[in-house]
Specification:
The protein folds into two domains: 2-44 and 203-272, no CATH class; 95-198, no CATH class. Helix content is 19%, strand content 30%. The strands form three sheets. Strands 10-13-12-11-4-14-15 form a seven-stranded mixed β-sheet. Strands 5, 6, 7, 8 and 9 form a five-stranded antiparallel β-sheet that branches. A three-stranded antiparallel β-sheet has the order 1-2-3. The radius of gyration is 20 Å and the shape is globular. By secondary structure, the chain is an alpha+beta fold. The termini are close together.
Length: 273
């Protein structure tokens, strides 16, 4: 999904060559049907299942972007000369990064590339975000994150995310407390004095229960679209994680009104993700 700033955030879903504005279709019937094919997002090879968020097994085992250090950036080994894709590592890891606090289900710490904070917060469904540090590289940001995670969480509870609003947190006060309690910083990092930002999402209401709707378990997800938050399409009966299905071939059908309508499809578009 593509996000752009606004109140609420504007979401669009790439559907073939088209872009479907999700904000404009809240309350209408929407179906995502699995077409029985998964293609690796890197090499496009057909694969029986998706590994590491959309890769075939070969790419998952050989690409640097699928290495453990991507999810644990403090373990980056680019400097040791053992990166599987040095050019990719140079463009992705050896660039300025930010350390931030965000409130998705509760306060948490995370990192992202410089200039990417808003998109990162929106992807996580955060209602508040605050940049607290800058770092010369992804590894330095990851090392700072590890230290801060001993004092504040670094995980989001997706069930809370898709079922209710997170209570407000004073992120500025939390940053100041962390600055007082953390002894020493990794080389290449420095504290930042920025102002927190608020984010809001296109929501009519939350699902009745925080149920994960997956195309691995059913041929299609169908219902009334009641909201979009983070990478989730929210239906009355559960939440569909778009990113989890990034390599899946699907057909998206949009109805002209809420389900169950007596009419047929309002528009039907092919999505290859």
């Amino acid at each position: 999904m593509v996000v752009s700033s606004g109140d609420p955030i504007a979401y669009s879903l790439r559907v073939g060559d088209e872009s479907l504005s999700l904000n404009r279709v809240l309350g209408r019937g929407l179906e995502v049907q699995f077409l029985g094919r998964i293609s690796c997002r890197h090499c496009q090879t057909p694969t029986a299942r998706s590994y590491g968020g959309g890769y075939c097994y070969h790419c998952f085992k050989t690409l640097a972007r699928c290495d453990l250090c991507v999810v644990s950036p403090d373990r980056c080994h680019y400097h040791a000369g053992t990166c599987r894709e040095p050019e990719w590592g140079r463009s992705f890891c050896m660039q300025p990064h930010l350390v931030y606090l965000a409130n998705s289900s509760a306060a948490k710490v995370g990192i992202t590339g410089a200039g990417n904070a808003f998109t990162r917060w929106a992807d996580q469904g955060a209602v508040q975000g605050l940049v607290i540090m800058s770092a010369d590289t992804r590894q330095a940001a990851g090392q700072a994150e590890v230290r801060l995670a001993k004092l504040v969480g670094d995980r989001t509870d997706w069930r809370v995310l898709v079922s209710r609003d997170a209570p407000a947190v004073d992120l500025t006060a939390l940053r100041d407390r962390l600055r007082d309690e953390v002894e020493g910083l990794p080389v290449g990092t420095s504290w930042q004095d920025r102002q927190p930002e608020g984010l809001s999402y296109p929501l009519l209401r939350y699902p009745r229960k925080p149920v994960a709707l997956r195309l691995d378990e059913r041929p299609a997800v169908r219902g009334n679209l009641v909201g979009v938050k983070g990478q989730y399409l929210l239906f009355e009966h559960g939440a569909f994680n778009v990113r989890h299905h990034e390599a899946y071939h699907v057909r998206v059908t949009l109805w002209s009104e809420a389900l169950p309508p007596g009419a047929g499809d309002d528009q039907q578009l092919e999505l290859f993700s």
